[in-house]
Amino acid sequence: MHPRDWITVTRQGIYIEPGDFHIDPLRPVPRAVVTHGHADHARPGHGATLATPETLAIMAARNGGSLDGADALPYGETRRIGDVSVRLVPAGHVLGAAQIVMEYGGARVVVSGDYKRRPDPTCAGFEVVPCDVFVTEATFALPVFRHPDDGHEIAKLLDSLRLFPDRAHLVGAYALGKAQRVIALLRKAGYDRPIWLHGALQNLVDLYQAHGVDLGETRPATGAAKADMKGEIVMAPPAALQDRWSRRLPDPVTAVASGWMRVRGRARQKGVELPLILSDHADWDELTTTIQEVQAGEIWVTHGREDALVHFAKTKGLHAEALYIEGYEEDPADATGGGG
Amino acid sequence: MQRFADLLDGLVTMPSRNGKLRLIEDYLAHAPDPDRGYGLAALTGELDLGTAKPKAIRELAEARCDPVLFYLSYDYVGDLAETLALMWQGPEDTPEDPPPLWEVIDTLMAAPRTRIPELLAGWLDRLDATGRWALLKLITSGLRVGVSGRLARTAFAGWAGLPLNDVEEAWPCVQPPYEPLFAWAAGGPKPEVRDMPAFRPFMLANPLEETDMPALDPADYAVEWKWDGIRVQVARRFGETRIFARSGDDITHAFPDVVEAADFDGALDGELLVMDASGEPAPFNHLQQRLNRKTVSAAMLRKYPAFVRAYDLLQDGPEDLREHPFRHRRKRLEALFGTPRDRFDLSPLIPLNDWSRMAELRDEARARGMEGLMLKRWDSVYVPGRPKGPWFKWKRDPLTVDAVLLYAQRGHGKRSSFYSDYTFGVWRDDELVPVGKAYFGFTDEELRQIDRWVRANTTDRFGPVRAVTPGLVFEVAFDSVHPSPRHKSGLAMRFPRISRIRWDKPHAEADRLETLLKLVEAAPAADGG
Ligand SMILES: [Zn+2]
Ligand SMILES: [Zn+2]
């Protein structure tokens, strides 16, 4: 049976009929399989939620500590749901992020969720799984998005600290994934001063540390003396940058760590002084490489700029089509949940 | 090139002046020679590299990129140069090192237009995304990173630890990439303006307040008329003449008659004027006909002949006179221009030594077509800027009329929520005709009162402008009034400002156009300009 006959797109998202479950459903469903903990993928309220233990821990942390119907499936183990066998494989996106590998009726389908290919010290790296149908994300699916080396971007931040030693450096980064990666990259670059955190980041930074990701010393920025944060790195969710919250900082340099920062007009429009091009999504080269490496007969493109990637795939002789699902963050730069 | 690209990249998102200064200073500290000089020149627009048009970029994009992907990307990014810079793909194998900035600039300056696309492609292959963006911005003259010449010079002075005024003075003596400036910063000699027909920063006067007078001894001051033209510096060395306006802008091209007649050697400070048929200075409006023109016609030159009335000598031959007192400079000036030369004469001194006689003379200024009086201390050396004490200007009293508010416009910046720009009119028969526009210079409280009045009396709105019911009278002060075919009333005011709000005055009693017409100074024949 062709996967098109057992995988459908409903109002809730991708539905797997022979297993009677949804992937990353947008609304509450009886049974969900969740790729990763970003809020637009991992919504609460499902009857049962299958995900990696890390993702479930993230969802529980978000949910005030617990999650009803949590059903953990570690990477690499197989589980039968209905007539479908399901396996979770690292996606390299954030801690716990998984591709969902499904086998049914002699066909293997992989739903990538959000992913990236470059190494990230805070999570397991993407694994290529050859398949018949590859459902890929397309957040940065334009050839203008080629993320630079992350060491280069961290060097930019450290260089700015050297140039403006009296100014706090306020780095906007998503609470899940990006914030921890920025801290880890700073540590890797030898930066060993305490990093000051907005309250909204503390929870997940602690969770990462508890999962064995060493992020060094962090301190709460709220309640700290203004003078103490001169020349220091302070991290906050992007939404807090223009907030009154930032007034507590000494003449801050506003930085944002996001793949969207690649386009200068966007950075300027958002009043970002120091754009750091750090993304947890695959860039154009990673997307185009991946859809070729999985050797799938069909590529289904969703979650972003489908048209460019579909066009590219066709020029390479691949069968590709767009899978339009409403509801995931098109532009996570404006949201708190997704990850640029 | 890479460092320059990173600098541009930093500047483009850096809003604060201090932040920009810091970035440029850091660039100067780390970029190699001669790149950093070229970098400065590129920032301030002193390099003319606008050799590639958007069309060339589009063609390059179409030749090297998938057109569907290019236009999808362009649509998203919204900037042609940035789109191509981001999606350009260099060769797979390790590319050559990025080109230094000097190589790019030297090559571009010498290359024929037809070779540009090929050169560009070669460089784009060797640069990273930021470098490619900077290169494409550079050659389409679209840097727009908010760096003025002044800011760049301030950064240079800050980095080199040199006084800004010295840097301002040395700057016009050198060409990109400014090797002598960097040699100077490294401890070498200052590039000397002495040997160049280059700009020397002006010394400026403070307004004389009545309260200043008791403390001043008139005997310490030389007195001259304040002429109603524009202040210029004429520098001539080794046969090359340059005329600079107050701003330091080079306006040589607009005054070929003056340039041609110049036959002295040195640099003078004086008033640029137009002469009337009798050889006397004509009203300002005549000079106006010669300003801000791209080309100067023979008719213009005949109708409005320009000349310079010299009042200071900054350099005589190879000798810089600025460190000498005014008394000495004046003697040297008289020696040079005592006998009038073609298009150059001397601003005479007025022998005066008491305040009351001086005040009488100032009252005559308007009738004599003067802006007022200038007072310069005999012992003053010529220093850039506006030091308090050595020089004063004592301007004639302004003229005033009572005019009626017709339109109000929202201001800018701090005043953007207030109606603070006003168009006012006077009566012609039983109709009010607009005669000028001014913004308010008084207290916040008065501004609020007018703002309230405007909002309560609005009859119509056009964007940021409101028309109001005639009713509010302003006393408008202005320096002079001239015929102007551009205004419905046929008149234009010079330096109008609102001097008083006449809440008490019924608008029917505001002034009439005839009153203003009587104040018009002798006008040049209409020429439609
Ligand atoms: Zn997502
Ligand atoms: Zn995500």
UniProtKB/TrEMBL annotation, chain A:
Membrane-spanning intervals of the chain: none
Superkingdom of the organism of origin: Bacteria
InterPro entries: MBL, RibonucZ/Hydroxyglut_hydro, Xnuc_lig_assoc
GO molecular function terms listed in the Swiss-Prot or TrEMBL record: RNA endonuclease activity
Coiled coil: none
PANTHER family: BLL1145 PROTEIN, CLEAVAGE AND POLYADENYLATION SPECIFICITY FACTOR FAMILY MEMBER
Protein name as annotated: mRNA 3-end processing factor
Originating organism: Caenispirillum salinarum AK4
Automatic annotation (TrEMBL), chain B:
Name of protein: DNA ligase (ATP)
Source organism of the structure: Caenispirillum salinarum AK4
The EC number(s) this enzyme carries: 6.5.1.1
Ranges in a coiled coil: none
Domain ATP-dependent DNA ligase family profile, chain residue ranges per copy: 299-428
Classification via InterPro entries: ATP-dep_DNA_ligase, ATP_dep_DNA_lig_pp_1105_fam, DNA_ligase_ATP-dep_C, DNA_ligase_ATP-dep_cent, DNA_ligase_ATP-dep_CS, NA-bd_OB-fold
Enzyme class (EC, first level): ligase
GO BP term, pick one: DNA repair
Keywords assigned by UniProt, alphabetized: Cell cycle, Cell division, DNA damage, DNA recombination, DNA repair, Ligase, Magnesium, Metal-binding
MF GO annotations: ATP binding; DNA ligase (ATP) activity; metal ion binding
CDD domains: Adenylation_DNA_ligase_Bac1, OBF_DNA_ligase_Arch_LigB
Reaction catalyzed: ATP + (deoxyribonucleotide)n-3'-hydroxyl + 5'-phospho-(deoxyribonucleotide)m = (deoxyribonucleotide)n+m + AMP + diphosphate
PANTHER family per UniProt: DNA LIGASE 1/3 FAMILY MEMBER, DNA LIGASE-RELATED
